[in-house]
Amino acid sequence: MRWVLATGEEYRGGPGPQPPAADMRLMWYDDELAAVAQRWADQCQFKHDTCRSVERFPVGQNIYLERTSRPLKRPDWEAVTNKWFDEVAKHSGRQTLYPYRFSAVTGHFTQLAWASSFLMGCGVSEYTELAAGRRWYTRLYVCNYGPSGNVIGDWMYRAGEACSGCGPESYCYYGLCV
User: Which spans of this chain does the record mark as coiled coil (predicted)?
Assistant: First the structure.
């Protein structure tokens, strides 16, 4: 998904298309961020963790709750990530790249698209709840990102030809800086 945005191929949003990203980094999985995300998911609370930062940097977070009256099938990370990324359809494009202004309707997308966030780790928990006399099967997804995105007044990413803003020691991989 990040490569679609980085290369200027994301046509949703208003006005679309979203501008290509000159400096978007490839995302890598991080075990420490995953452990912190799993510890939070295990709390079974559908709200953002306020104590999630690690020694290396502040940490951003996306959460998603799935609830049904039938037993849950296996976790579908692709579907959840797509739901977060689909917020791009509500994103206003170039005028919100800098200075960044937070919007609750696009915050999951902007964290996913934050150029300098290059590490992520996720956790999931499943539990049952009783509400309105019914049993609900619930799954809580949590993903942490580092360094944190959604920093008010900062750059979401720099618009420009994909990889044109990568550092001299970097190389380009599918439009992302490595």
Answer: none
